[in-house]
Amino acid sequence: MNKAAIFEFFRRLAEANPSPETELAFTNTYQLLVAVVLSAQSTDVGVNKATRALFSEVHTPAEMVALGEDGLKDHIKTIGLFNAKAKNVIALSQQLIRDHHGEVPADREALERLPGVGRKTANVAMNCAFGAETFAVDTHIFRLGNRTGLAKGKTVLAVEKALEKKVPAPFRVGAHHWLILHGRYICKARNPECWRCPLADLCDFKGKVMEKKGVPDKKAK
Q1: Which homologous superfamily is 29-130 in?
Q2: 138 counts as catalytic
Q3: CB-side exposure of 65: number of CA atoms within 13 Å?
Q4: Which of 99, 120, 161, 217 is catalytic?
């Protein structure tokens, strides 16, 4: 995909959704960080259900520590790996209090030193909370980058680095959200809905299906 195609790719996504946002629910930066940690190998919908009551009670690291690991588990037991996640959330909350005065640092390296926070989680926090031009590559973005030809790579880091090089300036902050949402709802893993994709003519995917199952493509008539 050349530079002109990449620009048009993001221009269309931006036109359809001028102000993209994460689908995780939160009211402050700390809750965002916790939600992203909890979202690993879980859906945003599932995390939001689990955190609805939790976030009405807990707004700060100190309140999370006071809730305790067992109390946190009671709130998040419906999501995957909740035991390990509860342990990490309590530990990162304690570390935020000890090292950052209870505030989430606007620094990727400092974020990655927190328990349960990897590069992807740090990138999401930097982008959503602080408006940084970071590219958090999840399974959706990894698939989309390779499938479309936008950012090919054999590893998550390779795709991230390709996006850093290729995403045009006007779209760098929103790119993470546009790509995740597109991969989640249109460029799906098993049945990509190419027939309704606004980017189909720009995409390198050779297995495009340009009609909905059971519904003939009107353009083909």
Answers
A1: Hypothetical protein; domain 2 (1.10.340.30)
A2: yes
A3: 12
A4: 120
